[in-house]
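ugh ok fine here u go
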Amino acid sequence: MIKICTSELEPYKEIEAYQIQQKKVLLGKQGAANIFIGTMRDFNEGEEVKGMTLEHYPGMTEKQLEHVVAETEAQWSLLDTLVIHRVGDVFPDDVLVLVVVWSVHRGTAFDACRFIMEALKSKVPFWKKEILSDGSRRWVDKNTDGYVELS
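structure:
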C-alpha cells in the first residue's frame, strides 16, 4: 500500500492497522519485518532549520512510488510493503516517511526496505522548502546520501 498524508503521521498506529487489515496475507508466513521511520531533523547544510514545507505532484508522486515498490518486488521476494509519506508543513521530530517491508527472511527485508528508501529519496518527486532560524526560506537542492561507510 502507498499513501500520501497531510496530517500527523503516527507510524506505529499505521503499522498496527495495516497488519490487522492484511492478517490473512501475513499470517504464519512472515519471518521478518523491516521498519524505517524518517523524521525531520533541526539542521541541514550546517544551519538550524525551524520547519519545512514538503510539496509533491499529486498523481505523479503516487505513480512513481508505485513504480519503486514494483521494482523492489521484482528484485526481492516480499510478502507485503507499506509506504506512507507526509506532505505539507512539518517541524523537527515530525515523522515524514514510513516504509515497512515484510518477507520470509530478514536479509531480504533489510535490503528491500533500504532500496525503497533510497529510490524514494532519489526518484520520487517531492520538493522541500526549509525555514531557517533567521526566518529565511530555501529550497533543498539535494537529498542527503543514505549510504555511509562503516568501519
